[in-house]
Amino acid sequence: MTARIKYIEPYLVILFPLLALLLYSPTYQAGFTHDFTGWFERYQEYGPSGIAHCFGYHRLQHVMHAIHFSIFSLFGTSPFPWYFIYSVLFGFNAYLVYKLVGKLTHFVGMKQNALPIITAFLFLIHPYQSAAVVWKVCFHYLLATALILSTLLFTLNYIKHKRKVDSCKLGISFILGMFTHELMISIPLMTIVLAAVLFVEKNPFYKRLLLIVVIPQLLFLLLYFNLRPLLLLNTGKASVLSEHPIQPMKQLSAVYQYGTKHALFTRYWSHAAKQNWQLTLQKPAVLVTLGIITLFLIGLFFYNYRRCSPTIKLLGISLFLFATAIAPFSSAHISYILFVTNDMYGLSGSAFIICATVALLYLFPKRMRDVLVLLYATLSIILLAKTIYYWHESGAVMKSLQSDFRWYDAKNVYVLASPDNFRGINMMKSHEASMLDDHLLVENGTRPTCEITDIIQFNMTKRSDGVSVQVHSPDSLSVKFNQWGTWHWRNGIGASSYENEHFKVDLAIPYYHLKIKSRKAGDVFIYQDGMKWKEVEF
Question: Are 420 and 457 a contacting pair, CB within 8 Å?
Fold first, then answer.
């Protein structure tokens, strides 16, 4: 096995991107939704000059925007180039995972084996990666992950060879990463983990690692966060540090939730099972117990580190690196019900929890280990195929609805039902204003002149989902689901009855009643039925 890996190793940098292109080919026209429409509009508004101030956004992401805007300028919204670039970059990330895990196995004294390539392959086929690969607003997650992995690679090279060139490379990679996504603030924490390992090994290089690497990184972070008022137009929103404040219990819960989510595929459990699991991991008594056990295991790990087997060392270090990768967003909302939602946050951390999972399997006897790895990979591919199918369906529905809209000359268009999401995949999710006109802007290059108002949205589970409308009078109608398993949404969350100056909505399941207070000549009421729009005939 080792000989075969050595033979194909020079080609992995090509093979992994090719495999990513193959796996994600059904999604090539999907992902131009939600936040992407906002960047589309800002890129049109500001042009190349917007790169200097991140197009009015409140984060220092100059590197990401320089590349993302270039893709937009070259290809517009032609789907194939976007699919190609994102898939190739993701495949390259898998190659970096292979190289990094190979360095980590050497770091812990493990003999050359198939563990790095198994980890990289499982990273590539993991079902939670689809959000970053397909959703065209997630380029910074792919790029930041590449820079996180590269920085750690250079750090391990610096530890091994003690060359100044490696310290320069990791410094440049870290700075580029910070101007890509603030996930990079996990790097100093990761480096401290490596320094702690050197300390317990009585390797004096830990001092140089802290002095030459960690302290400059922390000083740069201090400078970085003070640059925001100088380089950005909009600093009304805070950085990731204050946008996700320290909440110890919630953040501790997030580490366990993300860990089990990635290792055990909890998102694909039955609704009752995953709900009970996540609620259990949020209980204070459970968290305190797990926290005490974790602290005990950490102490035991470092106390006995020099006597541990290389596999145990790799398992422990991988878990530490995973926890530090999760840290920057550990107080953010975690969705356990809908597929895809928030999955891009875990892209970089998934490399380490997958490595830990494989290291755990390597503790079993060889034959049992091989069977377990095969079963794990098979399950991952099945779940990825299901998720990719959902992306394909959502993309097909979006394309059809954008093409079918035909009320550009109307003054007011009221949308009785439109898709918020497809099993968690963002579609026309609206908040204060309708997103339909934004998606028509992306589709046609110009925004419609009609005023569009979303009344109620819903979540789709298959492409034929939709509603039917019963008109009771010129100012009264009922809107009913054509299927079970969906529910009403408004402003990005579950809807409730509401009223404004134009209409009143009384919500029930599986329908809602609309009372129209004032209807003007030329007002149009439309609704979605499967892949098409229909107009209400009063």
Answer: yes
pLDDT at 226: 87
Q: How far, in Å, are 260, 321, 366 from residue 265 at the CA level? A: 7, 20, 24
Strand boundaries in 455-536, DSSP class E: 457-460, 467-473, 476-481, 488-490, 493-494, 498-499, 503-507, 511-516, 524-529, 532-535
- Chain segment 229-288, per-residue pLDDT in tens: 888 877 665 555 556 667 888 889 999 999 999 999 999 999 899 989 989 999 999 999
| Phi and psi angles of residue 481, each rounded to the nearest 5 degrees, phi first | -65, 145
Tell me the two tokens of residue 76: 């517009």
Q: Is the pTM of this model over 0.90?
A: yes
From the number of C-beta atoms within 10 Å of its C-beta (0-12, 13-18, 19+), residue 245 rates as exposed
Contacts 24+ apart (CB under 8 A), 368-377: 373/118, 376/122, 377/121, 377/122, 377/125
Distance in angstroms (rounded) separating the CA atoms of residues 183 and 178 = 8
409 confidence band (pLDDT: 50, 70, 90):
confident
Query: Would you give the end-to-end CA distance of the chain in angstroms?
Result: 71
- Span 116-157, pLDDT tens digits: 999 999 999 999 999 999 999 999 999 999 999 999 999 999
Query: b/e per residue, 11-24, with b = 16+ CB within 10 A?
Result: ebeeebbebbbebb
Which run of H or E residues covers position 453? strand 451-454
Q: Which pLDDT does position 328 carry in this prediction?
A: 84
Angle between helices 62-75 and 35-46 (to 10 degrees): 80
Instruction: Give 309's DSSP letter.
Output: -
**Cα gap 194→203, rounded to integer Å:** 11
CA distance 78 to 74: 10
Whether residue 305 is predicted with pLDDT greater than 70 in this model: the reply is yes
Query: Within 201-268, where are the H helices?
Result: 205-208, 215-231, 240-243, 248-264
β-pair partners for 470: 478
Residue for token pair 């110890």: 248
Nearest to 355 by CA among 128, 115, 181, 183: 115
For residue 381, pLDDT beyond 70: yes
Buried-exposed string 46-67: b where 16+ CB fall within 10 A, e elsewhere: beeebbebbbebbbbbbbbbeb
Contact indicator for 305, 200 with CB cutoff of 8 Å: yes
Tokens describing residue 29: 């026209």
Q: Which residues, in sequence order, are bridge partners of residue 506?
A: 513
